[in-house]
Design goal:
This protein has helices spanning 21-46, 52-75, 145-156, 161-178, 187-196, 208-214; strands at residues 3-4, 10-11, 14-15, 77-81, 84-88, 93-97, 103-109, 113-122, 125-135, 140-142, 204-205. By secondary structure, the protein is of the alpha+beta class. Strands 10-9-8-7-11 form a five-stranded antiparallel beta sheet. Strand 7 and strand 8 (113-122) form a beta hairpin. Helix 1 (21-46) runs antiparallel to helix 2, helix 3 (145-156) packs antiparallel against helix 4 and helix 4 packs parallel to helix 6 (208-214). The longest helix has 26 residues, at 21-46. The protein is elongated and about 70 Å long.
Length: 215
Amino acid sequence: MSTNSGGGQPAPAVGLDLVAPEVYAPMLRKLALAAAGIGVGAALLAATVVSLPIAVGIGLAVAVPTVGYAIGVRRRRMWLIDNTIHARKVLGERQLVVSAANGVEVLVYPGRLSRIALRITAGADTQLIPLAMYTDAGSGRELHLLGLRTLADALATSELAAAIAVSEMLVQQLRTEARDAGLEQRPLYRAVQLARGKDYVSPIVLTDSEIATLV
């Protein structure tokens, strides 16, 4: 997951996953094993009353969806190299050049566990990058500092005014985190509070003026 940048030096791949796959990999492994075990049990039980091929089919029907889900979630990853976002899905990989974006939006999903994400559109491709999630109790998780820094730098290469504004917001987020400021001073958390104040259930797209107030 690397390429060459100026000077022939390999550009490092910076992960953009809010929760690294390695964190929940053990849980997914246990889930897959449990599903496989239940599938085998279901097949053995069914074999006592139906033919073997049908019993095997029942076992697969029970196990395969959950095992497939666990494998799919484990495979999903997102990272940034230079100016390009790479998103690996269950099948294949998508690449999106940030400087070529024709749309940059900040979305807030309000709720007891509120989420804030960045949506970048380049032509027919759209990529959603999670930035943070916060609980009503005032705790949460934010994208790591290096991820925020490289994302801000990539957005700064765009000619879109919206991209520049979001880049400045992320830089301000970095500054507040660097001085260990409370959540109330961090732009991402303030964006969530702003959205909660609207008392909407559906995702909210922040306006340019709202983003400006967060910087």
